[in-house]
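S1.2 Input.
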Amino acid sequence: MKRSDFWYYLPEDRIAQTPLQKRDSSKLMVLNRANHSISHNHFHDLVDILSPGDLLVLNNSLVLPARLYGNKIGTGGKMEFLLLEQKSSDCWEILVHPGKKARPGAQFSFGDGLLKAEILEILEGGNRLARFFWDGNFYDVLEKIGNMPLPHYITAELKDKERYQTVYSKTPGSAAAPTAGLHFTQEMLAQLKEKGVNIAYVTLHVGLGTFRPVKEDDIKNHKMHSEHYYLPEETADLINKTKQNGGRVIAVGTTSCRTLESVAAKHGKIIPDEGYTDIFIYPGYKFNVLDGLITNFHLPESTLIMLVSAFAGYELTMEAYKTAVEENYRFYSFGDAMFIY
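S1.3 Output.
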């Protein structure tokens, strides 16, 4: 398939710039793959839509306030760092701007010296490897001086950092939020459990590659970014029990989906596992685990809309996106959601 097959028209004012006051009040489009129907609900209606015995698999990765603004030591020149991946206790792969100031040996200061860094190496593709210096707990320092790494299409100021975290975020490591989970509240999760819907967790640290555009005309030639995942034993057991009992395994977000399908592709079944995945899911892919998917509305020509098309079917997906535009749905990270089953 061609990249252009996944283009759709989106007016700029449909891109949600801020989260809704109530997380679970967003719209929810429901897609039924069996009869190709589309219906409109609100996210909190999931409590009524899901069935006892269903299993929701959520990504509990926590977004780091990974965007740092500082100065070059010696010249005072302004510098922006974006933490991408921790390589050791004090070393990170980072994105820098402007790049010409960040040569090996250059040193930088952030937060009036609370955090300092030295560039060690220029990596393939232009990213840098940097060693950091600080007193106390690194994540406490980051919380004090860091900014949330909002996507480029969000230009409004985020007043509350927690609104770019899921309420169940736990394991630090993401450079972007697993946004399908932003709609859940603790109260809603409790209502789902009370109904008999089970909850399980995986961890996939979302990298900035999730926003990288597909540049190849033939999508099969696109190379996916690699992201670290962890699927614990408890989650593997719940998935296998759900399947044995005839329940549905529903991934919350493309990141949870990619984690489950990666493990199944690697081992031929779901078992506890940890590693890196660069799985690219597009139409024609045969799903091994998923029975349902909860996801937001994604950018045109992105790997994410391609994944959704693989699960829902290409025609139904593109029809759903066209309908969402017509029905004034909110798009992207702070936007509305869809449930596909």
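S1.4 Remarks. The mean pLDDT is 96.
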